[in-house]
Amino acid sequence: MGILSFILFLFVAAACAWIADYLVPGAIPGGFFVAVIFGIIGAWIGVSLVGPVGPNLAGVSLVPTILGSAILVFLVSFLGKQFARR
Questions:
Q1: How far apart are the C-alpha atoms of 80 and 6, rounded to whole Å?
Q2: Residues in contact with 51: Cβ distance below 8 Å, sequence separation at least 6, in sequence order
Q3: In which domain, by residue range, is 24 found?
Q4: CA distance 53 to 10
Q5: pLDDT (tens digit, 9 = 90+) per residue, 44-59?
């Protein structure tokens, strides 16, 4: 994997995390770099749950990445609200 492929991977992962952020109630707490982290972790979660299905862009399976990122955004926003109430 070259540096250009890696950068493209990061942008696609961030875009999937932003799409998941719009689909799920809650918000990604941060900017672009946090969205990249959510996208990478979401890709791992989604591919672990569903497998590499759907379209693939820059080594990222889009459907599982969006699904995994949506799960992660929901969990982080839910846990953030629970800890904020204490």
A1: 31
A2: 64
A3: 3-85
A4: 19
A5: 898 899 988 989 888 8
